[in-house]
């Protein structure tokens, strides 16, 4: 245990700091880090080096090389820089490399050197050029701050949603500030800059001078400033070697330190741990590294070679040409377990487990001591927590074995924390491997979340490892394996050295019917890579037509999209394709396409009936569909034409179409309608009133109601209305007029073709029993019973029915008999039935 704490360095009385090696770097750097533009992403992210940047001593003909490495020094990408001079490099939160050029253009590259996009920081930046730039991170995303040659600042808080802000001018600023940085306060990005002994804070509306509380006199300039990883704290390095540490709001001083070194440091970054009360800053010079905080002494390290500092959530990564190290505050659980002569419960439990492995009785003594103090649960928790903060797998196993040993003596210790820690450490050890090169700590891993870690593995194209982690953690398929396989498929379609058939088959064999995987998304990526045929093959595996059709339309495969839409049975989808085809093809080709798809043609006709009548007529003409064309002209004659001449002309066109269709009945009916329209117009002119658009029957009825009986009869003869129908029309009209005298004359004009029972019915309907009796006597014997029942004469109806000896009539009369008034009649019928049965 003494050896284990050999690299612990105390800072004051309450904190220890340790530095351990993450990787032995195996990259082949031909130049020193000081001669390169360097950018390293947090959370164990990649390192970007722009070799041979534009310097005066270099010849202009030599182009620089941009190289990207993993944190372990494994090469990820290398490309010759062919664009303009670069001022600064930085990584976004999505691990995209932002390259800020001197002309204000920002080029964005992927982890593997693939160009993503570019954007400009504005015309003012282009005109005045870029002196310096910073890439910073906020809760909204990754931002860029620019210092121009006119000593003005421009920034965007989120490069994903670019909104440029020109910061206020600093009064009297004639040269570049000695140092500056970005602050994020109240969800707004600010600029803090130093001009001589003065500090200025720039926000979106004003430039204000600020003074750090507790700053000693004699400071003539600020040489360096650093903001913490969480933007809560600020450190200032002055020309006197004094280091001020306080809140980022510059309202509270936390501590100070005088390092007595006046040379400006190369870098200064914060080194703090979440939920820790300790505050420390790491300052780096050419060959010296110093950790200072709220203590009279500092921790100093000798740097054997040029190094670069990367601030992290819980420490600082330090890499050079040969090594990559991590410097951080020793966590409380680890400190209590491993510090010399510790009697903490976790330390005693670790010793008890070691003695148990040696089969020593001291294990029982240590265990009893913990149990007597009632601290066994705390001891197990300490060992579990300390295991998470250890980088070496052997120490992790030792602490977890101790925790497992202690759990055996507890009745109700929840196993979740132990199980989850074992899972988390297995994942962390896998990604920390040299060939993976993501040296996450436990705190960083929890802050980053497993989903983001999987995204970063996918970004590095480490699909097998990502899938193994998903399966090991038993993540839901949609969030885990399915999502990763979809990313793999999107990468697979970019491999242009493999045939479309092989790629499509390989993707389908790997994905199959995996839930959560959209073949249309993969096909869209293939189309974006210029592989249209591959996209079509992949869409064959997409079960949802609603996802197939939009992409096929985008690829200008409209006819195939129409077939897929028809197969789906989704009429809305078919209409979408039809409207797209209509805009894409000329009218002739569009109609020919429809003729090959009967369902689509039918749906389009339905659409045209409501929206485009002229197009519907063209369709019928092209198909020589005279029957439908005739029907179209009939509808058009009433819908579009108000003048009688236009309506008759449209009907004539319809009649001609029906003749061509060999539909004699429809043609004759149309001609009759034309004659009726002309006659109705003439009647309106001669008699007045409203006749147009009435049916033939209604026209006759209207004439009778108007007292024009002869005209009605003439109309009936002209249109060959049968006598029975005419008698019914006249009977109904005269009854409605209650012209009983004319009705009687009409009934006697000749023998009624409809009989006289309808006269009785109509009269009774008008509640005129007197008139009904006139016609009841004229009703034939076969309808006599019905007529008498209509009059309400049940007794006489019974006599007639008995006389006729008709069982149906007897039953009809009996159904009209009521018990109170027609009892005798009912008995009479029953006796007649009985006598008939005897005979």
Automatic annotation (TrEMBL):
<feature type="domain" description="Vps16 C-terminal">
    <location>
        <begin position="517"/>
        <end position="835"/>
    </location>
</feature>
<comment type="subunit">
    <text>Core component of at least two putative endosomal tethering complexes, the homotypic fusion and vacuole protein sorting (HOPS) complex and the class C core vacuole/endosome tethering (CORVET) complex. Their common core is composed of the class C Vps proteins VPS11, VPS16, VPS18 and VPS33A, which in HOPS further associates with VPS39 and VPS41 and in CORVET with VPS8 and TGFBRAP1. Interacts with RAB5C. Interacts with STX17, MON1B. Associates with adapter protein complex 3 (AP-3) and clathrin:AP-3 complexes.</text>
</comment>
<comment type="similarity">
    <text>Belongs to the VPS16 family.</text>
</comment>
<dbReference type="GO" id="GO:0003779">
    <property type="term" value="F:actin binding"/>
</dbReference>
<dbReference type="GO" id="GO:0008333">
    <property type="term" value="P:endosome to lysosome transport"/>
</dbReference>
<dbReference type="GO" id="GO:0016197">
    <property type="term" value="P:endosomal transport"/>
</dbReference>
<keyword id="KW-0967">Endosome</keyword>
<dbReference type="GO" id="GO:0042144">
    <property type="term" value="P:vacuole fusion, non-autophagic"/>
</dbReference>
<feature type="domain" description="Vps16 N-terminal">
    <location>
        <begin position="4"/>
        <end position="420"/>
    </location>
</feature>
<dbReference type="GO" id="GO:0055037">
    <property type="term" value="C:recycling endosome"/>
</dbReference>
<dbReference type="Pfam" id="PF04840">
    <property type="entry name" value="Vps16_C"/>
</dbReference>
<dbReference type="GO" id="GO:0005765">
    <property type="term" value="C:lysosomal membrane"/>
</dbReference>
<keyword id="KW-0653">Protein transport</keyword>
<keyword id="KW-0175">Coiled coil</keyword>
<protein>
    <recommendedName>
        <fullName>Vacuolar protein sorting-associated protein 16 homolog</fullName>
    </recommendedName>
</protein>
<keyword id="KW-0472">Membrane</keyword>
<dbReference type="InterPro" id="IPR006926">
    <property type="entry name" value="Vps16_N"/>
</dbReference>
<dbReference type="InterPro" id="IPR038132">
    <property type="entry name" value="Vps16_C_sf"/>
</dbReference>
<comment type="function">
    <text>Plays a role in vesicle-mediated protein trafficking to lysosomal compartments including the endocytic membrane transport and autophagic pathways. Believed to act as a core component of the putative HOPS and CORVET endosomal tethering complexes.</text>
</comment>
<dbReference type="InterPro" id="IPR016534">
    <property type="entry name" value="VPS16"/>
</dbReference>
<dbReference type="Pfam" id="PF04841">
    <property type="entry name" value="Vps16_N"/>
</dbReference>
<dbReference type="GO" id="GO:0030897">
    <property type="term" value="C:HOPS complex"/>
</dbReference>
<feature type="coiled-coil region">
    <location>
        <begin position="349"/>
        <end position="376"/>
    </location>
</feature>
<dbReference type="GO" id="GO:0031902">
    <property type="term" value="C:late endosome membrane"/>
</dbReference>
<keyword id="KW-0458">Lysosome</keyword>
<keyword id="KW-0813">Transport</keyword>
<dbReference type="InterPro" id="IPR006925">
    <property type="entry name" value="Vps16_C"/>
</dbReference>
<dbReference type="GO" id="GO:0005769">
    <property type="term" value="C:early endosome"/>
</dbReference>
<dbReference type="GO" id="GO:0006886">
    <property type="term" value="P:intracellular protein transport"/>
</dbReference>
<dbReference type="GO" id="GO:0033263">
    <property type="term" value="C:CORVET complex"/>
</dbReference>
<dbReference type="GO" id="GO:0097352">
    <property type="term" value="P:autophagosome maturation"/>
</dbReference>
